[in-house]
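Usage

Read records sequentially. Each one opens with the input sequence:
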Amino acid sequence: MAQFRSLLFAPATRADRFGKAAASGADAVCLDLEDAVAPADKDAARRTALDYLASRPAGGPAVGLRLNGRATPWFEDDLKAAARARADFFMIPKAAGAQDFAMLQRALGESRPFWPLIETPEALMRAWEIAAAPAVAGVLFGAFDFSAEVGCDMSWEPLLFARSQIAAACARAGVQALDAPPAAVDDPEGLREETDRARRLGFTGRACIHPAQIDPVNAVYTPDAQVVTQARRIIAAFEAAAGGPALLDGKLIELPVARQARRILDRAQGGAP
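and closes with the structure output:
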């Protein structure tokens, strides 16, 4: 699956927003049947999402569907709808463990990519097995639900441990890690700063809840020309040394440095994390 620098949520009740979301510049759009939909509107939202997925034009960003949680009364109907939905991926809230995805594969097919949300302390304890579960393409940190479960503040420091665990688990599994969407839609500088912190921690992209958040997030996760040029120089020096230690600009280049340079080039080309 292509790299998602940004993923934009759109309420599944708002068909008028689907086209705007697809044209926002986001790498992925997720039609939300869960938090963005009131209980009385779940059935209508499901029909609206299926209609759009069946008729959406070719090209554009990946479009997925966020289901309601397995413990909710809407999950079974969501699962039946998902089985016939032309979605590129499925987002699974309240992930509990790897066993969830064996069931989802049986219901939806082995070729459907899943994006679990880690939103509880129990899920964080199982982050490594969730990230490595079959058909998981990436993990999204559900910071709002997680902070409510723990009783902690939504600021950076209280959630640093959880973010670090998720980033490490995803890196180990070779899947993408998306940070939680920002709550503020009118603070581009704060958005860039926090998004860059997550990037430096190991996250590969970020979810968004408003089109205004897309450009700043994409900019953070797109290596600039200078960074790409330096990564190419590092790879060239490492290969010239036949995979052994090399010196470049007075700095030692070894395998971990070369691996990081290759990751930068992959991101620049929209490749795997």
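Summary fields computed downstream for this record:
- The mean pLDDT is 92.
- The longest strand covers residues 6-11.
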